[in-house]
Amino acid sequence: MSSSDFQSNYRRPSEDETRLLTAIFDLDGNSQFDDAYVKALRVKEMNDGGMGSLTLLQPDVDANAERKFGSALRGVDFKDSDGMHISASINLDSNGVPFELDLFKGDFSPLIKTPHKFTPEKIIDADEK
Fold first, then answer.
1. What are the average pLDDT values for consecutive 10-residue runs of the chain, which has 129 residues?
2. Residue 105 domain-assigned?
3. Considering the domain boundaries, does residue 20 fall inside one?
4. How many domains does one find in the chain?
5. Residue 65 resides in a domain
6. What is the rounded distance in angstroms from the CA atom of residue 18 to the CA atom of residue 54?
7. Residues with Cβ < 8 Å from 118, sequence gap 6 or more?
8. From the CA atom positions of the chain, what is the Rg in Å?
């Protein structure tokens, strides 16, 4: 499979995914991961049972490159509209480049709804505006 074939499996993040990525990057406070950075990202759904985890790809990163976990950014927690707790964080590779949006839902069921806002101080309900 060529690099272009592999990269064609990636897409732009949805509005909800963009909002979640931006919230986590904002909590981190690293200006390198600004709105332009998020808009340039491409994503691919991970095989996690529909919980919403994504592989992240930047334009200057080879999609075929082997990337290994290095660390995680501070994440956000929220409740899905079914009341189940979700933890979301961004994993960085060994070079400090974001490579996964990791979502974990307490009962492993698919993500229903992403909140419209995130606050680090409390867990937000998905239906809260």
1. 56 92 85 87 89 87 85 88 91 92 92 79 56
2. yes
3. yes
4. 1
5. no
6. 11
7. 19, 20, 23, 76, 78, 124
8. 14
Tokens of 54: 């994504």
Length of the chain: 129
**CA 4, CA 64: separation in Å to the nearest integer?**
10
Classify residue 30: in a domain, yes or no: yes
Q: 98 Cβ partners below 8 Å, 6+ apart?
A: 33, 41, 56, 58, 73, 90, 91, 92
Domain enclosing residue 106, as ranges:
3-60+71-125
Residues forming beta bridges with residue 102, ordered by sequence position: 89
Look at the pTM and tell me if it is higher than 0.85.
no
Dihedrals φ, ψ of 35, to 5°?
-60, -40
User: Amino acid identity, residue 57?
Assistant: L
Q: Are 38 and 25 in contact (CB under 8 A)?
A: yes
Task: Give the count of beta carbons closer than 10 Å to the beta carbon of residue 39.
Answer: 11
- For residue 26, give the H/E element and its range: helix 15-28
Per residue, the 3-state secondary structure of 37-85, as one string, reads: HHHHCEEEECCCCCCCCEEEECCCCCCCCCCCEEEECCCEEEECCCCCE
78 near 105, Cβ under 8 Å?
A: no
